[in-house]
Amino acid sequence: MAAKAPKKKSVLGRGLGALLEDSNSESNKNLEPSSVGTMNEINLDQIEVNPYQPRTHFDRVALEELADSIKLQGIIQPITVRQLSEGEFQLISGERRFQASKIAGLKSIPAYVRTANDQQMLEMAIIENIQRENLNAIEIALSYQRLLSECKIKQEELGERVGKNRTTVNNYLRLLKLPPDIQAGLRDNKISMGHARALINIEDVDKQLHIYKQTVEEELSVRKVEQLVRDLITPKEEKPKPEKTGDSKHRTYEVRQIQQKLSSHFGTRVNLKADGQYRGEIKIPFVSTEDLNRILEIINL
Questions:
Q1: For the segment 269-285, what is each residue's pLDDT rounded down to a tens digit?
Q2: Is 1.10.10.2830 the CATH number for 178-234?
Q3: Which of 95, 106, 215, 217 has the most other CB atoms within 10 Å of its CB?
C-alpha cells in the first residue's frame, strides 16, 4: 500500500518568511525560473509600490536620513518584490528602502523576487510592517480589519496570522469603534492606546469626546483617565433610607463595612446591595482589559 503524501504544513503564525516560502513554491511555474526565488538588481522604474501597504505616512526627514546612509553604505538589506510580468515588479516589503533609494538617486536596487497572490501580498505587507515599522495603533487596527474583510480570515485565526494573541488583536479592532476625532488623536500621538482603551468603555459619544479633550488639554495620564471613566460609568451610591429598627441599622452598617472592605481590596469602588435577608448583588466595575485582568488576578481566576 502506497504511503500517503505528507500534508502541507499550515503557515499560521509562522511569519513573513513562511508566507514567502510557501507562496514561492506554489505559484512560480508561469514565471522565469532564472528570476523567481533569486536576488536580482532591478531598475527602480520597473517596480511599483505595494497597494496593500498598511502604512499611510512616511516621515520625510527619516527617509532623507536613510537616503544619506544608502549613498554611503549602499543597500544593506534587499527589498522583496513579486514579478507581475516580464520587466514589471511590485513591492512586497521594503518601501522605505525603495523610496529612500529614489531620493539617493539610485537607478537600481537589489531585490529578492518572489511570487504571491493578492491575499498573500496583504498578509506579507502587514506582517513585515508590524515587525519592522512603528505603525500607529489606528494603522494596525485598519490593517487587521482589512485581513478580516478582504482576505476573509476568521477573527479567531487572525491572531495566529499576525503573531499576536486574540486579546491584543481585539483591543486594536475595538479602536475603530471610537469617534473619528479620537481616532485621529490616537493616530497623531495626542493620546496613547491606553487612553483610547479607557475611552472605549464610555457609551455616550459626547462624554467620550469631553474626556478626550480634557485628556489632551491637561495631558492626563492613562491611570487618571481610567479613574475619570470609572467615576463616570459607576452608578452613584444611593443614600441609605432611614431605618426604623435597631436590627435594620445594624444590617446597613454591616453592609457598608463590607462594601468598604471590598472596595479597598479590589482598588476600585465596589457596589454592594443587600436586603433584609442578605440577598443582593456585588458589582465590581472595570475600565479596560488590564483592569479586568488585575481584578481576576486578585480573585485567582
A1: 788 887 766 678 888 88
A2: yes
A3: 215
